[in-house]
Design brief:
Length: 367
């Protein structure tokens, strides 16, 4: 099949779309019009865009296309968590997770890369290595596809990949997510999680507004070097320094994700060191008991340990929230569903054990 060389409009910000349309001799307002069709109404077919002239629709057909994602597999957990596996146009797969929260809110966890280069040892995705960056369109299309299952209140860039390793495409995707005539998410509702790429954190703060989460997971360089190899390049002192200087809105805090692993980082001394490390930073700590899976030797902490760790932080006036691991009965850890379906990222051979098995979408069609 010939490769489709038409430009994918989902990869363009409003400004870029305006320039593209100007190249076709079209007025500026057409860009907003198209954005509204693609994102407010989630329409992917030029022919359905009734306020565009027939001639313009025909011209668009020739030069452009609108990509979308159809889920190949979904797994539903008893707690309402839904995990999607999307197959991309080149056959690679990514995961997206829809997580129901209290008060009927829904958080969507999206991916920014196929695989990841950073190799955190507790992470299933890290074991695949990096295959490639996602395009802006592939990032926002995860949101568009999940919206078909109902409204989304918050978005976290916390799925497969290190978002700051794909900074340019992630910034474009955020611009599209925030666009009033598009998906219209407030930057307050969107959180980007990084393993701690210090120079890119500085750049992110200068380029766009987004809540920042830092995957911390250790209180000494020794332990963090082992868990997260990125720490050898950007050790804790540098990471804390950039957090201390990160531009925050008046009521905004940086979230520190701390996966508690039995006997590795869950001691009283760790809790003490954590309080010291975060001193002077407007911080919120998410304590996440490790979610055991077959590919990892790590164990979940005991319930008592978690309570004691959290209690220590709370007693020192810190905001420390215990996060339940959602979707325990499905492939909940990031990368697990992909691992089940694509034992190697390059392989497209599908397993048979998923809960719902939708047919792969025809090229150009979405569910
Ligand atoms: S935890 Fe995040 S940064 Fe680390 S390997 Fe996994 S996806 Fe990459």
């Amino acid at each position: 099949m010939d490769h489709d060389t038409r430009i994918d409009l989902k990869n363009l910000t409003l400004e870029e779309l305006t320039v593209f349309l100007a190249g076709m001799g079209k007025e500026r307002f057409r860009a907003s019009q198209l954005m509204r069709w693609m994102y407010s109404r989630l329409v992917n077919d030029f022919d359905a865009m009734s306020d565009l002239s027939k001639a313009l629709r025909a011209e668009l057909h020739q030069r452009a296309r609108i990509s979308c994602l159809g889920s190949e597999v979904t797994e539903d957990s008893r707690d309402g968590t839904r995990k999607y596996l999307f197959r991309l146009e080149d056959g690679q797969t990514i995961e997206t997770v829809r997580i129901p929260m209290e008060d009927n809110r829904v958080t969507l966890c999206i991916s920014t890369q196929v695989g990841c280069a950073l190799g955190c040892v507790f992470c299933h995705t890290g074991s695949f290595g990096l295959v490639r960056n996602l395009t802006p369109g592939e990032i926002v299309n995860q949101v568009c596809a999940a919206l078909a299952d109902g409204p989304i209140s918050n978005i976290v860039l916390m799925g497969m990949g290190e978002p700051l390793h794909n900074l340019d495409n992630v910034v474009k995707a955020l611009q599209i997510l925030y666009l009033p005539e598009g998906l219209d998410f407030s930057p307050r509702k969107v959180t980007l999680s990084t393993a701690g790429l210090v120079p890119e954190m500085l750049e992110l703060g200068q380029r766009i507004r987004v809540n920042l989460a830092v995957s911390l997971n250790a209180t000494t360089d020794e332990v963090r070097n082992q868990l997260m190899p990125v720490n050898r390049r950007y050790p804790l002192a540098q990471l804390m320094e950039v957090c201390r200087n990160y531009p925050l809105q008046p009521r905004q805090r940086i979230t520190f994700e701390y996966i508690l692993i039995r006997g590795v980082n869950d001691s009283d001394q760790d809790a003490r060191r954590l309080v010291k490390l975060l001193h002077g930073i407007k911080a919120k700590v998410n304590l996440i008991p490790f979610n055991e899976h077959s590919a990892s030797p790590f164990k979940a902490p005991t319930g008592d340990r978690v309570t004691r760790f959290q209690g220590y932080l709370l007693d020192r006036g810190m905001v420390a929230i215990r996060r339940a691991s959602k979707g325990q009965d499905i492939s909940a850890a990031c990368g697990q569903l992909k691992g089940k379906r694509d034992p190697l990222p390059q392989q497209q051979d599908a397993g048979e054990d998923a809960v719902h098995d939708n047919h792969p979408p025809e090229k150009g069609t979405c569910k």
